[in-house]
Design a protein that fits this description.
With about 150 residues, the protein is mainly α. The chain has a domain of about 90 residues: Helix Hairpins. Helices cover about 70% and strands about 0% of the residues. The longest helix is centred in the middle third of the chain and has 26 residues. The N and C termini lie far apart (about 90 Å). One of its GO terms (molecular function) is sodium:proton antiporter activity. Keywords: Membrane, Transmembrane, Transmembrane helix. It holds the Pfam family PhaG_MnhG_YufB.
Length: about 150
């Protein structure tokens, strides 16, 4: 019975890893390519590591915790690295193949749309005047240096 369960975990891990790798190769956009390694491959490698931990715990005299630690570190680091890669792509202004939403769809909004016109009017009427001495300091060059 243990062999069937381990076989199931290994096959599941292999399928998820293959799908994640295939997604990395087939997807055209950097943003969509992030999904392959971070989602499917994480599940695949995690499944393989759990199968390995169960097998070596059953065969050996003690419990094998190395694989569980690797699985925990994998589950922690994969989303963080994907987030950093996505932020880097946004910072570098990489283009996405996804279409941008139309302006009409944004303007129509929905029931969750918040009316911010009052807040905008309040922001426009706030006191944003610059004091005269600050304005002179900004315009006049510093003549104190000799």
């Amino acid at each position: 019975m243990l062999e069937f369960f381990l076989s199931f975990l290994i096959l599941t891990g292999a399928i998820f890893t293959f799908i994640g790798s295939l997604g990395l190769v087939r997807l055209k956009d950097m943003y969509t390519r992030l999904h392959g390694p971070t989602k499917a491959t994480t599940l695949g490698v995690g499944s393989l590591l759990i199968a390995s931990a169960i097998y070596f715990s059953a065969q050996g005299p003690s419990i094998s915790l190395h694989e569980f630690l690797i699985t925990i570190f994998l589950l922690i680091t994969a989303p963080v690295s994907a987030h950093l890669l996505a932020k880097t792509a946004l910072h570098l202004n990489l283009t996405s193949l996804a279409e941008k939403p139309e302006k009409d769809a944004i303007d129509q909004g929905g029931p969750d749309e918040v009316d911010t016109t009052e807040e905008t009017e309040k922001a426009d009427t706030t006191d944003t005047a610059v004091k005269p001495e600050a304005a002179e300091a900004l315009q006049a060059p510093d003549q104190t240096k000799s």
